[in-house]
Amino acid sequence: MMSHETELKALMLASLDGDAVSHRALLDQLSRYLRAFYKRHLDRIGRGPEEAEDLVQEALLAIQLKRHTFDVETLLTPWVHAIARYKLIDYLRRNRALLAYLPIGDHHELAAADDQIAVESTHDIGQLLNRLPTKVRHAIESVKLEGRSVAETAVRYDMTESGVKISIHRGIKALAKLIGRETRA
């Protein structure tokens, strides 16, 4: 029987080679891991499963956008964990939650980033965002990219707070579908 790491890495490698079935299986397995990770951490600070689900979608989107940065000679799970942890830290900062609940982890979580790749990824996400309805795009850009609160975004774009949250949730799902279509193409 293959270990969890071995199985996930095999799916990632096949996904990087363009295997859509392996890519879907990888995302399905990672979403279960990420959901448990976020629920465990958010439960400690009294946050609900809806917020965990939003973080799962954000992390999967980041994994999709940054998959070209994965070093095939290293382990996959520390790379995924680092992305998940950074998304959690961003969430805690946006919501002014205490960072004391977040374990530091080990040094294997840290990975160097290529500035040019970051610029290219930003351009790619910008093109994808332009394919979303205006209100959805504004909500995602304001909260997820600019770091504004849901309340600030609601006032800024004349929306309700729950409207902003719903727009973000639906927009991230739509982005994941768009990325999936581009991966299969």
TrEMBL record:
Domain (RNA polymerase sigma factor 70 region 4 type): residue spans on this chain: 124-175
SUPFAM superfamilies: Sigma2 domain of RNA polymerase sigma factors, Sigma3 and sigma4 domains of RNA polymerase sigma factors
Keyword check for DNA-binding: yes
Cell membrane among keywords: no
Highest taxon, organism lineage: Bacteria
One Gene Ontology biological process: DNA-templated transcription initiation
Domain spans labelled RNA polymerase sigma-70 region: 34-96
Matching Pfam families: Sigma70_r2, Sigma70_r4_2
Keywords associated with the record: DNA-binding, Plasmid, Sigma factor, Transcription, Transcription regulation
MF annotations from Gene Ontology: DNA binding; sigma factor activity
Family statement drawn from the similarity comment of this UniProt entry: Belongs to the sigma-70 factor family. ECF subfamily.
Listed NCBIfam families: PRK12539.1 (NF009191), sigma70-ECF (TIGR02937)
Record-given protein name: Sigma-24 (FecI-like)
Species this protein is from: Nitrobacter hamburgensis (strain DSM 10229 / NCIMB 13809 / X14)
